[in-house]
Protein 1
Amino acid sequence: MLAVQDWNWRDECATEAQDPRSRHARLTQAELAERWRLSCRTLEKWRQTRRGPSHLKLGGRVIYRLEDVEAYEAAQLRGAR
């Protein structure tokens, strides 16, 4: 009898979520606040005033796509004078 490989979709999803280069990488508000060393409240204010990176609202949760965060960071880069 052949052994069936034990495949678990949860393991695959967890691996993909942990890979920051994944095209599906997402950050929560708390994760982004930690990345930028800001308070969650600052990010909330920015969303209300349409500042900061684009975000998704999924079932009441705020999610930031890593690609949007990185694009925003790149746009904020200023050269030394």
Note: Helices lie at 9-18, 29-36, 40-48, 66-76.
Protein 2
Amino acid sequence: MRDMDGRFANSRKILVTLLSGFLILLHVAGLWDTFKSGDLISADIYANIQSLLSVAIIISLLLVILGKKFGLVSMWASITALVLTQYGAHFGFYDAAFTEGRSAFSYLRGFMFPTAITLLYQFPKS
């Protein structure tokens, strides 16, 4: 991560890598489950959009790990798009089973790690 310097730069790099790596593994596991179940080909448009957004999130997080500033922008864009599709399902625009019994605020959890990654990445230089 070229742009990180200053105080605790190595610690911040490690934390960004760990958080990004966890999210990458989470999305790869989701894609793998979709692939193994055979839903990737027979899935509806909503599931295909979700899978495409997961791929975009993985790529953007790899860019963040590599220290590219565009990675942060693409991470936020792809994660926001994913959360918006979840809200679309929650409010009945798409048919999805995962919305049952969930609060509308529960989807905002998707912004916790990106916020931490951004704060660590943008930590003031001293």
Note: The longest helix spans residues 9-36.
